């Protein structure tokens, strides 16, 4: 049988990795897929030919629309990233009756509802395993492996660059900007690295995870997003002293009131496996009612780990080429007409424990006043640490860990605390999760 002809948009880090994996493992891939898979047409503005296998078998153009309009191409792999022209290219490929494989989390999180509707109407598949957690097959696990379960929550380290930065800050005391530059050089970071450090990339991925976990439409605009740029070396150190690690976590949970979707720095007890996921590695925990807690771990970024997910999607598409569109796995795990309109909770309705760091005057009664305000809001304190003032200093650093509290109440308490004359500057708050089963 003739190999399936694939069009590849992008020959950068992941595009090059995808071409290489497909060429290097061609024989085993053909045995798995039942047919050979060959990239016949690629589009790229700039690429390094010395890094890419199989270029002699491809026509390379700088016009991506030429690839999506190529009548010979059956599957388009979109690896150029960003919203535009990726969206137009994907919609054009779908309109042309081609299946699409993409690693573009921004595109899926923002425009996935429209793209999936177009794909369903045209009877083609859009596969996006590489969009979440790089090489970890978390979409497949959630959509297929756990499909017997009512998912209760999912929480993950889903940005490799951010995890790399936090790990280097903790282990080597390295400077934030210095580690970010290294992540960029290694090809982990987004084209705009603020997407990594401000949590936007993780929020894209969390939005997708939440939809697949709970069968809700993609709602990126409702995902609470906070990055790691406010984290200081001293917070990493204090968290350590308290027996915690700071990780940038995406959390989605189904509660009686609705669905939480949030991305923020999080203290996790160091005894938790996920607290020990370091460097560019990602990990996602999923708790299902039947299976209990499960954990998925692997490289979250990089050329070949991401290519691993891209190529697996291509193989899945090839295996399903002859199947009825109705009998394929639904894009968002639940049948398209069975998605639910569960409300998404605002951050003020979320309950978490909190780490607080504040600079306070070194005077009698300050701690008692702060504790009194917490008592007024029924906020229970789990641990307190006061750092000794330096020689001649009149203020001290106070670290507190609270029990779980409704965010609205914590906001009100912090407003009163920050208004005290004896509290200097804003209070640093980092939410904490036990991730208990
Ligand atoms: N910039 C992303 C990360 C790449 O660091 O995780 C993988 O999505």
Automatic annotation (TrEMBL):
Active-site residue list: 205 (proton donor)
Binding positions (NADPH): 105
GO molecular function: homoserine dehydrogenase activity; metal ion binding; NADP binding
Keyword hit for Oxidoreductase: yes
Pathway(s) this gene product operates in, as recorded in its UniProt entry: Amino-acid biosynthesis; L-methionine biosynthesis via de novo pathway; L-homoserine from L-aspartate: step 3/3; Amino-acid biosynthesis; L-threonine biosynthesis; L-threonine from L-aspartate: step 3/5
Domain ACT positions: 355-431
Positions of NADP(+) binding: 9-16
One Pfam family here: Homoserine_dh
Swiss-Prot/TrEMBL cofactor(s): a metal cation
This protein's record includes keyword Transmembrane: no
One GO term (biological process): threonine biosynthetic process
Catalytic reaction annotation: L-homoserine + NAD(+) = L-aspartate 4-semialdehyde + NADH + H(+)
Broad enzyme group: oxidoreductase
Keywords: Amino-acid biosynthesis, Metal-binding, Methionine biosynthesis, NAD, NADP, Oxidoreductase, Threonine biosynthesis
Name of the featured protein: Homoserine dehydrogenase
Organism expressing this protein natively: Candidatus Sedimenticola endophacoides
